[in-house]
Amino acid sequence: MFESLSQKLSGAFERLTRRGALSEGDVDEALREVRVALLEADVALPVVKDFIASVREAAIGEAVLKSITPGQMVVKIVHDHLVQALGGGAEGINLATTPPAVVLMVGLQGSGKTTSTAKIAMRLTRRERKRVLMASLDTRRPAAQQQLATLGQQAEVKTLNIIGGEPPLAIAKRALQTATLEAFDVLMLDSAGRLHIDDELMEEIAAIKTATKPIETLLVADAMTGQDAVNVAKTFQDRIGVTGIMLTRVDGDARGGAALSMRAVTGQPIKLLGVGEKLDALEDFHPDRIAGRILGMGDVVSLVEKAAENIEQAEAERLAKKMQKGQFDLDDLADQLKQLQKMGGIGDILGMLPGVAKIKAQMKNAKIDDKVIGRQRAILSSMTRKERKNPDLIKASRKQRIAAGSGTSVQEVNKLLKQHQEMARMMKQMGKMGQKGLMRQGIQSILPRG
Asked: Where does GTP bind (predicted)?
């Protein structure tokens, strides 16, 4: 998300920060590039106008233009205004009410409402230890209720029993009664959607909202639809009233304009991001972190959180001890590649590191992506346990067998073995030097020779 916008803004600000002194004209030239970049990212025109006007007003002040680092000051002003445009501070799901807290999910058909309902329910169950009941109110879409029941089994979250022919309002009332009697903490209601907004849909949702009095009415919007998602959000806010927004499919939206427009157009915060199809592919929306990613400053906090969630402490400690002894076999390499994929792959991790926009572009040109990791894991899986423990056993005939078994080439097998040799050499060098030796001689002492 935001890749194209980030690249264009990085280019504009790189030119700006290279200059020593800045004139008003320099700032205007940079802001023109920012304006074009925002419009190309599908940000709503009124939002772009307000954003540029407020940034310009702050950026052409005497304190900025005559400061020691005027370029950096302008970048900071843009960052601060981006944070405000995205909503200021992070806002999670509000459950501060007498249980059961009702969360009503609304949106158009195909926006990912049902999957998002299950994602949130699973997170509340596992992270916050809440007892959650899910109920599907979608009686129009074929097998919609069965879909939620299946997702409930996968997420280990209870779903309301399905009664054929029961209308949506009656299901909502029965769900609320069940959640109350059985002492559930949260009731998630997955409402029906339509391919477009109509009066019948709005009346149905309004009736459900009146009957269940939800503390949260979350609009699920598809980020891939860009400006259409913003228009849908405005209509739902005007006619129903929503308390927050969840953007789905943000992993496939390189422009990100919907996220920048949502808050300004609806006045409601984006609370969650759907970043993939899996049930755990859910992120909190942090405006300051997102602004950092857009401007190429990275998001190290989110990266650390992601690592803490996906990397098992015992496994990390085991590997650390082996590294201290200078040991690193192909099984360890396989574990590292598996962890990398669990964390979202190379692209996701690089997107959270500061100043890597150029590196990402170079990697894309060199065709280094997550498919390479998948192929390397296939090669490692085609080896025997003895071969992974002792790579010296792998000669020509074994390489041919491994390549055939993994659907790769002997050249790819050789490349992986060379990569492992270099990593193992570095681990051995670090083990010999110890922490004090490494600090004394520097990182150059373990880098590849020649």
From this structure: 107-114, 190-194, 248-251
Please indicate if the annotation marks 126 as binding a ligand.
Answer: no
97 is in an annotated binding site: no
Answer yes or no: is 381 a known binding residue. Answer: no
How far apart CA 370 and CA 372 sit, in angstroms, is 5
Does pLDDT of 211 surpass 90?
yes
Confidence check: pLDDT of 176 > 80 = yes
The span from the CA of 273 to the CA of 305, in Å, is 15
85 marked as part of a ligand binding site: no
Cα 278 from Cα 21, distance rounded (Å): 49
Number of CB atoms found within 10 A of residue 380's CB: 22
56 labelled as ligand-binding?
A: no
Three-state DSSP state, 248: strand
Degrees, nearest 5: CA angle 93-95-100: 135
pLDDT in tens, 314-348: 655 666 666 556 567 777 777 777 776 666 555 55
- Which H helix or E strand runs over 49? helix 45-59
pLDDT confidence band for 91 (50 / 70 / 90): confident
Q: Rounded CA gap, 328 and 388, in Å?
A: 10
Strand partners, 267: none
3-state secondary structure 416-435: HHHHHHHHHHHHHHHHHHHH
Q: Is the dihedral of CA 167, 169, 175, 178 positive or negative?
A: negative
Q: What is the pLDDT of residues 270-290, one digit of tens each?
A: 899 888 888 888 888 888 877
DSSP state of 282: E
Q: Give the chain's domains with CATH numbers.
A: 3-86 (1.20.120.140), 101-296 (3.40.50.300), 303-436 (1.10.260.30)
Q: Is 192 annotated as a binding residue?
A: yes
**Which residue type occupies 234?**
K
116 is in an annotated binding site: no
Q: Return the structure tokens found at 291.
A: 């602004």
Q: In angstroms, rounded to a whole number, what is the distance separating the alpha carbons of residues 299 and 153? A: 34
Strand, helix or coil at 318? helix
Q: How far apart are CA 34 and CA 27, in angstroms?
A: 10
